[in-house]
Design brief:
With about 375 residues, the chain is α+β, with helices and mostly antiparallel strands. It folds into 2 domains: about 200 residues, 3-Layer(aba) Sandwich (Chemotaxis protein chec); about 90 residues, Surface presentation of antigens (SPOA) (Roll), CATH 2.30.330. The protein is about 30% helix and about 25% strand. The chain has 9 helices and 14 strands. Strands 1, 2, 3, 4, 5, 6, 7 and 8 form an 8-stranded antiparallel beta sheet that branches. Strands 11-12-13-14 form a 4-stranded antiparallel beta sheet. Strand 9 and strand 10 form a beta hairpin. The longest helix has 26 residues. The chain is extended and about 105 Å long.
Length: about 375
């Protein structure tokens, strides 16, 4: 036997090892290329919305890359965890029924918790306390809630989740039995939070849940079928006291004859309809009396600093540092609008670090009600 060649025992051992190694799963065996693209697009839209929510919470620039998809078996999920992770369990309750699992590294979770609690993201606690886990849970709640809102727009139906639950997975982790399917889609993406986090996040989606989302986005909506009109029997009442005559359903040829032969009461008392006369003021006061029914309806309050008209060419030329001249003078009261209707005027003030408006003039009650009605 030449030097460097394998003995028969070594060759047998290699074959035995190959036979004991389970074949790797390919996503192409479970999803077509079109289905993979659809699921990737769902991920892009929902995660894109999540970054906006997370960025506002952490006051940091948040970036998430395009997700990559792969297939694993549920029992292989534990093998992917080589260090402590925080697991975020998400239940979809409206629009879809299913679970999914989001996993982030424990150190990244500590940074997110520190930023949520007003820290700089650099001075971290050695372990995640209950308070830190609550902060991470709120961040994930806002993040996944924003993703659900984007999915509502995408699927043209309401999509909602229950508040996510959070727990810490050690190494080796406890048994991951939250997801029911044996085949799981692994969605991997890169998360960057300012200069503090540059890491990978993993989302596990049961195959059946993914198939349901894909089916809804790829299947065209069925046209509404016309509702059949049920022909009811025509009941004719003769003016002969309490007697009534009920006829069977008429054919198209019989209908004109029956209608024309209906008796007419020549002694019927016919009177002209008289309407009450209302003035403009009485209409407004009547509306004001019923406003109690509307007090709980929310309105959008807008403070308008000023307006101007610009041609499209000028708008396209705008850039950082450009100045737009408005139609109001410095120090002139700003308009306060409720659902785009003027209700008051005021002056801009600063309250600690926030802007506010001090009301200086209120539009009269009658004018406000008239404006809301128009």
């Amino acid at each position: 036997m030449n030097e460097g060649s394998l003995s028969q025992d070594e060759i047998n051992a290699l074959f035995s090892q190959m036979e004991s190694t389970p074949p790797s799963l390919s996503i192409d065996d479970f999803l077509s290329s079109m289905e993979q693209d659809a699921l990737g697009e769902i991920g892009n839209i929902s995660l894109g919305s999540s970054t906006t929510a997370l960025s506002a919470l952490l006051n940091q620039r948040v970036e998430i890359t395009t997700p990559t998809l792969s297939i694993i078996e549920q029992e292989q999920m534990e093998d992917l965890i080589q260090e402590k992770h925080v697991a975020v369990h998400v239940d979809y309750t409206i629009g879809f029924r299913g679970k999914n699992l989001l996993m982030i590294k424990e150190k990244d979770a500590r940074i997110i918790a520190n930023l949520m609690m007003g820290g700089d993201g650099l001075t971290l606690e050695p372990e995640l306390s209950e308070m830190h886990l609550s902060a991470v849970q709120e961040a994930m709640n806002q993040m996944m809630g924003s993703a659900a809102t984007s999915m509502s727009t995408l699927f043209s139906q309401k999509v909602d989740i229950s508040p996510p639950t959070v727990d810490v997975l050690g190494f080796p982790p406890k048994k991951l039995e939250d997801l029911e399917d044996k085949i799981i889609i692994k969605v991997s993406f890169r998360l960057k939070v300012g200069s503090l986090i540059d890491s990978n996040m993993v989302q596990f989606i049961p195959l059946s849940f993914a198939k349901e989302m894909i089916h809804k986005i790829l299947s065209p909506a069925k046209a509404a079928e016309p509702v059949p009109v049920k022909k009811e029997p025509i009941i004719q009442q003769a003016n002969t006291g309490a007697s009534q005559t009920t006829t069977a359903p008429m054919t198209e040829q019989q209908a004109p004859q029956n209608v024309s032969s209906a008796p007419i009461n020549e002694n019927a008392n016919v009177q002209k309809v008289e309407y009450a006369t209302f003035s403009k003021n009485s209409q407004v006061s009547a509306g004001a009396g019923n406003l109690d029914l509307l007090y709980d309806i929310p309105l959008t309050i807008t403070v308008e600093l000023g307006r101007t008209d610009m041609p499209i060419k000028k708008i396209l030329e705008l850039g950082p540092g450009a100045v737009i001249e408005l139609d109001k003078l410095a120090g002139e009261p700003v308009d306060i609008l409720a659902n785009q209707k003027l209700i008051a005027k005021g002056e801009v003030v600063v309250i600690e670090e926030n802007f506010g408006v001090r009301i200086t003039d209120i539009v009269s009650t009658m004018d406000r009600i008239s404006k809301m009605a128009n």
